[in-house]
Amino acid sequence: MEKTDKIYVAGHRGLVGSAIVRSLKEKGYTNVIGRTHRELDLCDQAAVREFFASEKPDVVVLAAAKVGGINANNTKPAEFAYSNLQIQCNVIQSSHEYQVKKLLFLGSTCIYPKMAPQPIPEDALLTGPLEETNEAYAVAKIAGLEMCKFYKRQYGDDFISCMPTNLYGPYDNYDLQGSHVMPAMIRKFHEAKTAGKETVELWGTGTPLREFLYVDDMADACVFLLENYSGEQHVNIGTGKELTIKELAELVKKTVGYEGEIVWNTEMPDGTPRKLTDVTKLHGLGWRHKVELEEGVAKAYAWFCENVEQARM
What pTM value is reported for the model? Predict the structure, then answer.
């Protein structure tokens, strides 16, 4: 990439997209553009084509998606499948038609089988059944990364994919009906502390193992791949480190300063029992994460406190 390339970040206001915009600008890329959903509906094929025809981006980062936690995925699977397939098909096809020279598609580690080998290597894709609670989202994301592979094979397009692990940080979604585990915990403990509540209810048993990556580290890895990678296979982005949901809860509780008790609602689902990425490929390319979890949670909570009025609640 050239520093003057016009780089379109789809989803530039979200957790992922906003971090990638920050990283690009910090690294000297001066022509980064984005469009809000109101300005450009990525589910509208004609509108997407018109945008590409008029703006002619050199590089595209596809970070826009309909996302949510276990509850949202469980209750709205058709919406998750339909919306994400539309977004991906429209942006990837227009990137091909208007000769974008580089595209990065962001997936999610939920694409891997529920009982994938741990840590999960890239070649575990499509080797077993998916986790039922986010199957629709996973199927859509699998289609997106496979499309990038097929466009590369058939047309020679430099379309690459990456699979970030669980992300957290500035501009996360704190809506309890659709948020992921980290922001949900931050909000619950913060509100319980503020209200003086004696208990906080969390879902499941707390035993599943999860890996978490600070979103600015993820963005740094994405720019690194844009600059250094053109392979057909997708690349995992993570820390290679894990902890239980109970351990995470205790860390968030301590960071927030909540002194009450945690009540685990074991009637609610746990999701995948373990999900740790194998980051051997990424390490081999020369990239490693910088922000450890304790520091990252403190950064995330500080941002939440400073932006609680503007946060997605």
Answer: 0.92
